[in-house]
Amino acid sequence: MTSKTPAVPAVALGTWAWGDSGEAGDGYFGSQLTASGLREVVEKAQANGFTLWDTAVVYGMGHSETVLAQALKGYARSEYQLSTKFTPQAAADGDDPVAEMLEQSLGRLGTEYVDLYWIHNPADVARWTPLLIPLLQSGKIKHVGVSNHNLKQIALADQILGEAGFRVEAVQNHYSLLYRGSERAGILDYCRERDVRFFSYMVLEQGALTGRYGPAHPLPAGSNRAAAYNGILPKLQALTDRMRAIGGNRGASAADVATAWAIAKGTTPIIGVTRTSYIDGLIRAGGIELADEEIAELEALGDAADVDTRGWWEQEM
Ligand SMILES: NC(=O)c1ccc[n+]([C@@H]2O[C@H](COP(=O)([O-])OP(=O)(O)OC[C@H]3O[C@@H](n4cnc5c(N)ncnc54)[C@H](OP(=O)(O)O)[C@@H]3O)[C@@H](O)[C@H]2O)c1
Predict the structure, then answer these.
(1) Which domains does the chain possess?
(2) How far apart are CA 257 and CA 285, in angstroms?
(3) Is 133 helix (H, G, I), strand (E, B) or coil?
(4) From 84, 210, 309, mutation site for ligand 1 pocket: most ligand atoms within 8 A of C-beta
(5) Cβ neighbours of residue 217 under 8 Å, at least 6 residues apart?
(6) Dihedral angle of Cα 33, 48, 2, 181, to the nearest 10 degrees
(7) 279: how many CB neighbours lie within 10 A of its CB?
(8) Can you name the residues that pair with 173 across neighbouring β-strands?
(9) Can you tell me which atom of ligand 1 is nearest the CA of 204?
């Protein structure tokens, strides 16, 4: 991102699962999270320099934003950065649905501005992108990014913003050892060449790539992530075993190796954190330097798993 951007940590923190907590959650993750547990996650993360929090209106339909704001209470606004999104499919009918959705996010987040605001998906790039411009001009959003956009759509959004003196400063796409569509489509190269930060999401494939879940211990029954991943867990075993072995040599876990891989590829992972011990993992991941041969081996095992983990909301890149 540009020089006026606050220093962005090597890893951002994701709060989609936080939309599950309490009564209003949508049960996507089937996670049992409490306000006090999430407060501990925030305290540990903030104390260790992980201060960039990613959320979205549609994570528990506002619940993730509300819970995040509660968990951050007491910290000065300058001590953390907020990243949230405009989701076209949830737009209201008014004159300016982007400004309206942002206003609601600001209310839930208890803030006057968002550090990084995203167009969540490319439903209509020409329609939604221009509506970011007045929000940038007013300072209600400090930086903008696009998510789930392909190369052509990123370039179009950049052109629209460019006409007003702004630019696409960040890209946020699904990117993991099982899902490298953005790399194959040249989006990582595009970002590197233009100094655009690439945020990789679902690096851990919602828990399926952590080694914590497997055929004998599947993802929580009844959750959406169980429906997406439980059927393919046997195919991931060779990869997660190798990740565990690579991590074991360094006192780290399979999940830490996945995160270290995403960092080694020049991306900023957004890791969904639900426990304080996962923050320890991020600290370890930051210290792991994978050898080129290890990266190649892990990617070959990811390819050999031969699974398609594309989310239902994602397009082919
Ligand atoms: N722009 C978009 O369209 C989009 C789409 C998806 C996600 N995102 C963003 O990216 C973030 C990350 O994606 P995600 O949360 O869906 O999935 P993820 O980061 O791939 O996986 C998160 C899950 O992995 C487990 N986990 C995390 N750290 C771990 C560790 N160190 N060791 C073992 N297990 C660990 C936790 O599951 P348990 O609680 O079961 O242990 C957690 O809920 C989201 O929260 C969201 O902010 C954006």
Answers:
(1) 12-305 (3.20.20.100)
(2) 6
(3) helix
(4) 210
(5) none
(6) -50
(7) 23
(8) 200
(9) 20
- Span 244-277, pLDDT tens digits: 999 998 999 999 999 999 999 999 999 999 999 9
Atom 43 of ligand 1, residue of closest alpha carbon: 272
| CA pair distance 144, 98, nearest whole angstrom | 13
Give per-residue pLDDT as tens, 44-71: 999 999 999 999 999 988 999 999 999 9
For 215, other C-beta atoms within 10 Å of its C-beta total 12
Q: Record the tokens describing residue 61, joined without a space.
A: 């339909």
Residue 115 to residues 80, 196, 270, Cα–Cα distance (Å): 9, 15, 15
Residue 7's identity, in one-letter code, is: A
What is the C-alpha to C-alpha distance for residues 276 and 8, in angstroms, rounded to an integer? Answer: 21
Type of residue numbered 204: L
Give residue ranges with CB within 6 A of ligand 1. Answer: 14-17, 29, 31, 54, 120, 147-148, 172, 201-207, 210, 212, 253, 255, 270-274, 278, 281
